[in-house]
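Example record

The entry below shows one chain as it appears in the dataset: sequence first, then structure tokens.
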Amino acid sequence: MIKFFRKIRQNLLSEGKTSKYFKYAIGEIILVVIGILIALQINNWNQVRREYKETNILLNNLKLDVEENIKNLKELQKSLEIRKDYADFILKSLDDQKVTDSSMFISSMIRVGWIIDYSQTLPTYAEIINSGKLMYINSENLKNELASFQSQFEEKQQIATPANLVLKETDRLAIGHLDGIPESSSLIKPISSYQGVSFDLKSIASDTEFYKSVKYISYQSAGAKSYLNDNFTTRLERIKSLIDNELKGNDQ
């Protein structure tokens, strides 16, 4: 093709058609420029397609992370509700000075001080931040919600630390009030009978520090459940909805 154009130029010069030569040269330059522009446009189009594909992959992975967090949060809230039930059963037994179910009481003593952690797992968001790909997300609302969620989780971790200290101390006191050691398997799941394990209800009732700690755990469990629902589950549901909207916008 280049030889073909060169031959045309040579013929025009040899025939003395200078004006036609210059017109042809200008036309050739214009064609080259147009070709470069088309190539650049195709390159830009391919780049946009790659970014679009990568953005959708990131958004879908982020959605999976959010859905997993919502599932874990709901399980966590159930665990908090169960821990509150254990604390309330101990408090009622101590208040009534009567245990209606010894196995349930022992189960409650074993589990009332359990620490229930929630680990935030949004690895895709961390990848987006660390790789500088936050600009791929168009929705400012989604960006703000993700940043706010991350900040609130870090704040929650700071709040949880003193509560965990109370739980550890209550667990120590509770186990100390049991005569005998429950089998290791019973520490995971309550059983109908704890062979070789007994307790003195009057002695436990006289331990005001333990009573106050159990009362705090009942209160803290209910508060933590409500806090997680209002500030984490609800927010994650909103983030999921924003991700869906972003994906729909990319498809249009």
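Notes for this example: The chain has a mean pLDDT of 81. The chain has one domain: 2-251.
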